[in-house]
Amino acid sequence: MSITVMRQVRFCAGHRLLNHEGKCANLHGHNYIVEFHVTGNDVDELGRVVDFAVINKLFKGWIDENWDHGFILWDQDDNAINALEQVTPNRIYQLPYNPTAENMARYLMREIGPRLIETIKGYDLKLSKVVVWETEKSSATVTCDVSRESADARLQFTNATRSFN
Ligand SMILES: [Zn+2]
């Protein structure tokens, strides 16, 4: 059995999509909503997968420090980065790919989520889904197959055991 809880984090940021065919090539901004879905296999003695405040502190904390009221740009986008660096103060966050909703969700899932989740001691939790809402009509979802991951872990264990025999 698995149980999933979700916390929304809202923030404002600017970006642009390098080489976009239309208006998204211009610097512009969004009121983003990110859903962080956290999955556990059990509840604690109070009946929680994990306290919502704990997830909020971790993920909203990271977003507030890194993305909120900043510009999220592809690290290849020298033109925009150089221009924005002329402004003081500035907050520029460079991604290894274009800052689409898909890539932002992927980045949170792969690069940020695991190390934040690890800091929650005493719980066996996985970040199982990240949804980035760019507008109220447009979102991108990245999911991690939690059951498959534990199956892979079991498989690795089996292979390791076999190699000792
Ligand atoms: Zn946009």
From TrEMBL:
This is 6-carboxy-5,6,7,8-tetrahydropterin synthase. Keywords: Lyase, Metal-binding, Zinc. Gene3D superfamilies: 6-pyruvoyl tetrahydropterin synthase/QueD (3.30.479.10). It catalyses: 7,8-dihydroneopterin 3'-triphosphate + H2O = 6-carboxy-5,6,7,8-tetrahydropterin + triphosphate + acetaldehyde + 2 H(+). InterPro entries: 6-PTP_synth/QueD, 6-PTP_synth/QueD_sf. Its cofactor is Zn(2+). Pathway: Purine metabolism; 7-cyano-7-deazaguanine biosynthesis. Its EC number is 4.1.2.50. Signal peptide: none annotated. It is an enzyme of class 4 (lyase). Pfam families: PTPS. It comes from Mariniblastus fucicola. GO terms for molecular function: 6-carboxytetrahydropterin synthase activity; metal ion binding. The gene is queD_1. Belongs to the PTPS family. QueD subfamily.
